[in-house]
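Class I SAM-dependent methyltransferase, Streptomyces rochei. Tokens?
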Amino acid sequence: MTDEQQRPPAAAVFDALGADYEKAFAGSKAHRRSLEWLLGRLAPGSRVLDVGSGTGRPTAETLAAAGHDVLGVDVSPVMVELAARQVPRAAFRCADIREVPLADASFDAICVYFSLLQLDRREQTDLIRRLVRALKPGGHLVLATVPLDVEGVDATFMGQPVRVTSFTAQALVAVAEEAGLEVLAQEASMFTPAHPPARPEPHLFLHCRRRPADDPRG
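Tokens:
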């Protein structure tokens, strides 16, 4: 088996997209609002995990500029190289987040912006549960996705073939709550990436908090 065949499909997709991905989504005002929501709830110098950190912009850049200790993890070597160059205040690691050791209660906040769509539903559910365990009780997690009732659907994303799985908004809220999160706020919007022939797509942002240790729901 070649190295290319061994790499996760997402790595190949985002290696090919590179900086074009950042340009296509740079205009998302909902993403910026989501980051502002999180910034307003973080103590100075918080430790933040950015899952699927891409080029580092806007998430890691915004958080690091505010003085937070940011670790970005992305499966794409090209994205990690771009991020490290563009956001030197943050640390980045090229890895599959499912294989990265995460100590319990080791992060004040975790960002998961559109980085689960190429995992199946079981993998998404398991990863969210694992990320919640890595959050300190009372810590915040922001989860963004394209809220559709699709599973293993072949599609084209910015010219790249992908296999997409997602949840409806209601189902994703249920997954988050069952994992130990309290959904404090959510925003649904339509966004058109700046990349022809992109069409408007639904975006959902869930702003969550890990339930305190003394919460009987866990």
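The radius of gyration is 16 Å.
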